[in-house]
């Protein structure tokens, strides 16, 4: 288990039913889709008829590019939420902590009980801020937003139970690809058996594609990586060599 | 103390302004962004400038502003405030300067005592590092440093943590209720175990040696 890292129970960018791994090298083409013909259920007047359930209208599954766009938008929304937490709630609570400090300063020196109460309130506010930071980190790590994959992945590596070595380029890849790569690494490190490793994480750029390779890992966990990168139209390749091997993910960037 | 302040969040800026005044400090310049603060300090100086890291000019205006201030006013102390205590930013800050510089969480300077202690240490030339971050660095050193740090005694770990906060020998002695002489002995023992040979008498060199040791990977990244 990865101390300090708690994965998402749900991946908001997940699509329904991706193909199981391991796939053929270069796999991960668009999934075959069955686009069901939409059935009209309402009438022109807009009245909702008392239809039996089998006549309900199903929205057609979005086509490849539209799905990828939705996948990207989910990451942008996550980043916006993190910024909103930082600029909104967190800043207000920090300011409140200052106001309490001012209040504490104005309390006469002989009012020990009151002073201790204010100290206690301030400690509570600090705990609230820490919880907000934890939540923000799970939505979209601010360090990833501000400094990119290199610093963010190194921070993740520092918290891992297994030894992890990170090599990255200074290139930026956009919020979606970076988010998917970051959480793919985080989720993978979280499922590795304790005592395994060392793991080498390498991030590279190639023709508008983020290439993430993870070496020294149990390749049966490739699905964890696939889960993150496929909604963005990414692919995952596996090269195994006796238990551990290399998982390589390619994520298209905007 | 004469203090300058740049922070784009109005609520926090006003709160800090009032707390600084209540603590008896004179606020000589107060701005919502880095460029504005540099302009306000063109014809006057301050003992310490307090800078929000994440402010205009985006994305991390506090760092850019600090470089300009350090060039224009080399003697002015710099205190960075942030909502996050990240070792990534600590290393960037130490690239700007290793004397009279500090990095603290915004909410942690919310008392007159802590604020004044932080400003005074920076004004005296010390490095001040958020204790939460110093603790994390000592508890989770990188790579092959883990085993070495794990071999330190509990008291030595206390001293290492306070060194990573940037505290002087006297500061460490005061925190641990021991004599400066005892602190010196602990530090000599720690440096021996870590294999560091930095001049322990030079305060900021010693802090740097400790932080670099805790942060470096085997290949020196």
TrEMBL record, chain A:
Q: Which GO terms describe its molecular function?
A: ATP binding; phosphorelay sensor kinase activity; protein dimerization activity
- Residue intervals of the Signal transduction histidine kinase subgroup 3 dimerisation and phosphoacceptor domain: 78-142
InterPro entries given in the database record: Sensor_HK_TwoCompSys, Sig_transdc_His_kin_sub3_dim/P
What keywords appear on the UniProt entry? ATP-binding, Kinase, Nucleotide-binding, Phosphoprotein, Transferase, Two-component regulatory system
According to UniProt, the reaction catalysed is:
ATP + protein L-histidine = ADP + protein N-phospho-L-histidine
- What's a GO cellular component annotated to this UniProt protein? membrane
Record's keyword annotation contains Nucleotide-binding: yes
Q: What class of enzyme is it?
A: transferase
State if Transferase is listed as a keyword.
yes
- EC number(s) recorded for this UniProt protein: 2.7.13.3
Ranges of Basic and acidic residues composition bias in the record: 45-72
The annotated region (Disordered) lies at 1-72
Tell me the protein's name.
Answer: histidine kinase
Species in which this protein is naturally found: Pseudonocardia asaccharolytica DSM 44247 = NBRC 16224
From TrEMBL, chain B:
List, alphabetically, the InterPro entries matched.
CheY-like_superfamily, NreC/VraR/RcsB-like_REC, Sig_transdc_resp-reg_C-effctor, Sig_transdc_resp-reg_receiver, Tscrpt_reg_LuxR_C, WalR-like
Task: Report the residue ranges that make up the HTH luxR-type domain in this protein.
Answer: 145-208
Kindly indicate where the leader peptide sits in this chain: none
User: Is the keyword Transcription assigned to this protein?
Assistant: yes
By its UniProt entry, which CDD domains does this protein fall under? LuxR_C_like, REC_NarL-like
Pfam families registered for this protein in UniProt? GerE, Response_reg
SUPFAM superfamilies, per database record: C-terminal effector domain of the bipartite response regulators, CheY-like
Q: Which residues cross the membrane?
A: none
Q: Which terms in the Gene Ontology molecular function aspect does this entry carry?
A: DNA binding
What biological-process GO terms show up in the record? Answer: phosphorelay signal transduction system; regulation of DNA-templated transcription
Q: Which keywords fit this entry according to its UniProt record?
A: DNA-binding, Phosphoprotein, Transcription, Transcription regulation
Q: What is this protein called?
A: DNA-binding response regulator
Q: Which residues form the Response regulatory domain?
A: 2-132
Q: Which domain of life is it from?
A: Bacteria
4-aspartylphosphate: residues carrying this PTM: 52
């Amino acid at each position: 288990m990865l101390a300090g890292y708690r994965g998402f129970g749900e991946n908001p960018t997940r699509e329904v039913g991706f193909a199981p791994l391991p796939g053929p090298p270069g796999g991960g083409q668009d999934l075959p889709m069955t686009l069901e013909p939409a059935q009209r259920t309402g009438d022109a007047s807009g009245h909702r008829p008392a239809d039996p359930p089998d006549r309900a209208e199903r929205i057609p599954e979005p086509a490849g590019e539209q799905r990828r766009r939705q996948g990207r938008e989910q990451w942008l929304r996550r980043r916006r939420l993190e910024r909103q937490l930082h600029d909104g709630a967190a800043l207000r609570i920090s300011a409140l902590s200052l106001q309490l400090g001012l209040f504490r300063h104005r309390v006469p020196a002989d009012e020990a009980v009151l002073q201790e109460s204010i100290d206690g309130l301030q400690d509570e506010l600090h705990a609230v801020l820490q919880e907000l930071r934890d939540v923000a980190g799970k939505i979209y790590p601010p360090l990833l937003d501000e400094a990119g994959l290199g610093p963010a992945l190194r921070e993740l590596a520092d918290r891992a139970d297994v030894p992890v070595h990170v090599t990255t380029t200074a290139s930026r890849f956009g919020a979606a690809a970076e988010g998917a790569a970051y959480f793919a690494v985080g989720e993978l490190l979280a499922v590795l058996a304790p005592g395994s490793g060392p793991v080498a994480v390498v991030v590279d750029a190639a023709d508008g594609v983020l290439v993430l390779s993870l070496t020294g890992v149990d390749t049966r966990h490739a699905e964890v990586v696939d889960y993150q990168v496929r909604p963005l139209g990414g692919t995952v390749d596996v090269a195994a060599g006796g238990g551990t091997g290399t998982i390589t993910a390619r994520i298209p960037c905007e | 103390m004469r203090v300058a302040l740049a922070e784009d969040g109005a609520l926090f800026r006003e709160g800090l302004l009032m707390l600084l005044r209540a603590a008896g400090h004179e606020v000589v310049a107060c701005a919502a962004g880095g460029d504005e603060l540099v302009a306000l300090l063109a014809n006057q100086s301050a003992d310490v400038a307090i800078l929000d890291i994440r402010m205009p000019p985006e994305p991390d205006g506090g760092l850019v502003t600090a470089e300009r201030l350090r060039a224009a006013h080399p003697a002015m102390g710099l205190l960075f405030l942030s909502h996050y205590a990240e070792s990534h930013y600590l290393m960037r800050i130490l690239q700007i300067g290793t004397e009279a510089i500090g990095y603290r969480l915004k909410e942690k300077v919310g008392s007159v005592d802590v604020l004044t202690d932080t400003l005074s240490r920076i004004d005296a030339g010390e490095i001040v590092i958020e204790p939460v971050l110093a603790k994390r660095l000592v508890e989770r050193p990188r790579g092959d440093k883990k085993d070495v740090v794990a071999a330190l005694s509990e008291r030595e770990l206390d001293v290492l943590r306070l060194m990573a906060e940037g505290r002087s020998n006297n500061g460490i002695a005061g925190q641990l209720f021991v004599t400066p002489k005892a602190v010196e002995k602990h530090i000599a023992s720690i440096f021996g175990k870590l294999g560091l040979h930095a001049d322990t008498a030079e305060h900021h060199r010693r802090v740097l040696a400790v932080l670099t040791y805790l942060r470096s990977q085997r290949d020196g990244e």
